[in-house]
From TrEMBL:
Belongs to the class-III pyridoxal-phosphate-dependent aminotransferase family. Keywords: Aminotransferase, Pyridoxal phosphate, Transferase. This is Aspartate aminotransferase family protein. SUPFAM superfamilies: PLP-dependent transferases. It comes from Streptomyces albiaxialis.
Length: 463
């Protein structure tokens, strides 16, 4: 596509306005003010198009969310129909068809008796909802001292104050200290494999029970964990891990919360990641893939017996929580269209079929380059971790890491036309999360781009 002088001028004007007025999330000022700041104006399928007309593969599915791909007319039409029918109504003492249908669909897909959904607007709000429900549930059962939360080192659970307190990433917590009291972080599953003994005997499991006992079970409200932990790079749990968590929580009267903001709605090849690992949690938080990013929506799903116990208690009576946009008619109509399309088009089968091929391609790249320390993940969710030399165990220096994250990988994204996420949460990593509708051709394009990126990292480190 030929770029005209007018188009170039328009692109420059958009970028200048963004740099003057549009605050950038989790973005360094030098990247915000760079002449290379991307301005995407159109999308289709698994691809984005910038203001110059160049096509990029969306290798991160937006931000782990555009599961069904971009610019689907059926999802857009569902939103338009709902706007024309009824643009807004609340779920405060009332209901409307799209939120009822969305909640019913989700109840039919969630594991066990997770039957009741409170809709909110984002993953952070979903985690806040779970924190509040856990506290109020215990209070309603005559245990107001159960307020503490156990979560894992390097886990990301959101940025609102309560969710940030549960988050285990020191770098993003530190600027906002002090946070919510009573949150304790325990080891995650990094480096733990299924051949290291029964799950109940693993240190990463025993540490959770030890923390509960040390804090006093009568003071602990909930354990929060992602089925596959995003922070520290797509940490897949060992076999039996989630069943062991369920047993520990049951033994001590603690609620188990699966934070599935990324892991639900097909990212791991299952509707819900916790179900894939053989456990029924007490609550599930979700967002992202529920609407494939076509509208903002999050939610918390709770087990029906817990909901009934809270509402039937004279100390409860109602869950004291809500949001103006929670269960918005347009967002929930989009969720219904999105989930229905995922089901009818067997998208989860695509992930289960091609996920192993994606992993095999990443492992092949790893085997060619000693700068790749590890490849972790499952389904359509992977992390590539870098080192100076995998064979010798030499890690990247701070200077090398900064250059890879801030210069080498962003330049490689532009060169290859493949957009991924450089990640510095505990290591130097590349996060990979394509749309769930990606076929072999798209995955070949993705893997070709990753191969070039790894080549560039190797040259940067070794010259």
């Amino acid at each position: 596509m030929t770029v005209t002088e007018t188009e170039t001028t328009t692109a420059s004007g958009l970028r200048a306005k963004a740099q003057a007025h549009l605050g950038q999330h989790f973005t360094r000022r030098d990247a915000w003010q760079s002449d290379e700041l991307p301005v995407f104006v159109r999308s289709e399928g698994c691809h984005l198009y910038d203001e110059r007309g160049r096509r990029f593969l969306d290798g991160l599915a937006g931000l782990f969310c555009v599961n069904m791909g971009h610019s689907r007319s059926d999802i857009v039409a569902a939103a338009a129909r709902q706007m024309e029918t009824m643009a807004y109504s609340t779920n405060w003492g009332a209901a409307h068809p799209p939120s009822v249908e969305a909640a019913s669909l989700i109840a039919g897909l969630a594991p066990g008796d997770l039957d009741v959904t409170w809709f909110v607007n984002s993953g952070s709000e979903a985690v806040e909802t779970a924190i509040k429900f856990a506290r109020q549930y215990h209070r309603s059962q005559g245990q107001p001292g159960r307020t503490k939360i156990i979560s894992r080192h390097m886990a990301y659970h959101g940025v609102t104050l309560g969710a940030l307190s549960v988050t285990g990433l020191p770098k993003i917590r530190e600027p906002f200290m002090p946070l919510l009291e009573g949150v304790r972080h325990v080891p995650n599953t990094l480096g733990v494999t299924g051949d290291q003994g029964p799950a109940a005997e693993l240190e990463c499991v025993r540490a959770i029970e030890r923390a509960i006992v040390e804090e006093g079970p009568e003071t602990v409200a909930a354990v929060f964990a992602e089925p596959v932990q995003n922070g520290r790079g797509a940490l897949v749990p060992p076999d039996g891990y989630w069943r062991a968590l369920r047993e520990i929580c049951d033994r001590h009267g603690v609620l188990l919360v699966a934070d599935e903001v990324i892991c639900s709605f097909g990212r791991l090849g299952h509707w819900f990641g916790s179900g894939a690992f053989g456990a029924v949690p007490d609550m599930i938080t979700f967002a992202k893939g529920a609407t494939s990013g076509y509208a903002p929506l999050g939610g918390m799903i709770a087990r029906e017996p817990l909901v009934r116990a809270l509402y039937d208690s004279p100390l409860g009576g109602t869950f004291t929580h809500g949001a103006t946009w929670g269960g918005h008619p347009v967002s929930t109509a989009v969720a219904v269209a999105n989930i229905t399309a995922m089901r009818d088009e067997h998208v989860l089968d695509n992930v289960r079929t091609l996920g192993p091929e994606l992993r095999a391609g990443l492992e092949e790249i790893k085997n060619r380059h000693r700068v790749v320390k590890d490849v972790r993940g499952t389904g359509f969710f992977y992390a590539v971790e870098f080192a100076a030399d995998r064979d010798s165990g030499a890690e990247l220096t701070e200077e090398q890491s900064a250059r890879v994250l801030r210069e080498v990988l962003p330049a490689a994204f532009r060169k290859t036309g493949v957009v991924l996420r450089p990640d510095d949460r505990g290591a130097t990593m590349l996060m990979i999360s394509p749309p769930l509708v990606a076929d072999r051709e798209v995955l070949d394009e993705l893997l070709s781009g990753v191969a070039v990126m790894v080549d560039d990292v190797a040259r940067s480190v070794h010259g």
